């Protein structure tokens, strides 16, 4: 038991550090190779912070724990919106200025709805995994197009500032990229081993462990990136990081895990409970980010508090189910 707990703690610490170095190295390398700052912000930072979810889920699927992989992806999306944006908005209310980010949020909603359609029969087949991956590569294509057309977007200027602040040579960028990736894989393997061990010890399903402990741990890079960005006034990086991560989690993380280990007999509560919570939070994010006629597109401290309350309520509900008090 103690060994499993130590594995989870060590896995989380190394995972967060290596994910940060991986993203910094990848962003610096991409900049040296001539990639536009806006595209780095959309692809490298937005998707790169989901590297822990991808590696953890892929390893879980390869080791015969696809439920942990699915729970990690759905749980991370819930953590990203409810907890991370909630905390970030309390630290510094988030104003959404980027036109690209405002286009990504409705796209995220469509992706969430599509995932619900695939989950409706309580299975995820190999072909459905390929469909998700096709959607991911299509998203990359759209991101490249949006970056080319979006010159002058506020996200671009914020990303320029970040690249200047964390400037490094091409050699250093490649070294940190490799070190970050190697440690990312090693720490993910350690984390999965500890999480499965804890689940076995307590008789808790891999799905619940994925939705809670693993989802929270693999989302820590997004938390750090969003809070730091918001404190610097880089609001579009803060929210764009979460939106990009959530799209990545559904299309790439679930897609890769499903291709490795197709999932049969997925518990119905995944669609009825976890997917529904993710959908509701995504709709709430859309309303807050756009504002519509009632207010400007801004996530206020009050709304951030509401999001955190939703996260606490969701996890309390999971806990009450486990203890049989519901």
General description of the model:
82% of the residues lie in helices and 1% in strands. It has helices spanning 2-32, 37-48, 51-62, 66-91, 99-119, 126-149, 154-165, 170-202, 206-218, 220-231, 235-260, 268-290, 301-323, and strands at residues 94-95, 298-299. It has a two-stranded antiparallel ribbon. The radius of gyration is 19 Å and the shape is globular.
- Provide the helix percentage: over 70%
Shape: globular
Mean pLDDT: 85
According to DSSP, the number of beta strands is 2
Any descriptors?
two-stranded antiparallel sheet; mainly alpha; 13 helices; globular; 2 strands; 326 residues
Provide a compact summary of the structure:
The protein is 82% helix and 1% strand.
Annotate the secondary structure layout.
Elements: H1 2-32, H2 37-48, H3 51-62, H4 66-91, E1 94-95, H5 99-119, H6 126-149, H7 154-165, H8 170-202, H9 206-218, H10 220-231, H11 235-260, H12 268-290, E2 298-299, H13 301-323
Helix pairs in contact: 1-2, 1-8, 2-6, 2-7, 2-11, 3-4, 3-8, 3-11, 4-9, 4-10, 4-11, 4-12, 4-13, 5-11, 5-12, 6-11, 8-9, 10-11
């Amino acid at each position: 038991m103690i060994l499993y707990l130590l594995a989870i703690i060590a896995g989380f610490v190394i995972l967060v550090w290596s994910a940060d170095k991986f993203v910094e190295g990848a962003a610096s390398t991409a900049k040296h190779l001539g990639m536009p700052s806006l595209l780095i912000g959309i692809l490298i930072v937005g998707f790169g912070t989901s590297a822990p979810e991808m590696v953890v889920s892929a390893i879980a699927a390869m080791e015969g724990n696809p439920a942990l992989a699915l729970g990690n992806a759905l749980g991370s999306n819930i953590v990203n919106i409810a907890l991370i944006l909630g905390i970030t908005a309390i630290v510094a209310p988030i104003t959404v200025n980027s036109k690209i980010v405002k286009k990504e949020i409705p796209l995220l909603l469509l992706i969430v709805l599509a995932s619900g359609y695939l989950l409706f029969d309580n299975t995820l087949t190999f072909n459905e995994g390929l469909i998700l991956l096709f959607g991911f590569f299509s998203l990359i294509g759209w991101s490249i197009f949006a970056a080319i057309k979006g010159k002058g977007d506020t996200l671009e200027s914020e990303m320029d500032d970040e690249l200047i602040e964390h400037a490094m040579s091409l050699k250093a960028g490649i070294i940190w990229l490799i070190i970050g990736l190697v440690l990312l894989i090693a720490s993910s393997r350690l984390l999965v081993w500890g999480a499965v061990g804890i689940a076995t010890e307590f008789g808790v399903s891999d799905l619940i462990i994925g939705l809670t402990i693993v989802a929270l741990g693999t989302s820590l890079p997004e938390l750090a990136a969003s809070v730091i960005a918001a404190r610097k006034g880089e609001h579009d990086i803060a929210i764009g990081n979460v939106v990009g991560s959530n799209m990545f989690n559904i299309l790439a993380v679930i897609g890769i895990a499903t291709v490795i280990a197709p999932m049969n007999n997925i518990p119905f509560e995944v669609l009825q409970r976890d997917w529904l919570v993710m959908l509701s939070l995504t709709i709430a994010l859309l309303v807050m980010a756009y504002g519509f006629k009632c207010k400007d597109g801004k996530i206020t401290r009050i709304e951030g508090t509401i999001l955190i309350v939703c996260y606490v309520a969701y996890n309390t509900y999971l806990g009450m189910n486990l203890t049989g008090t519901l």
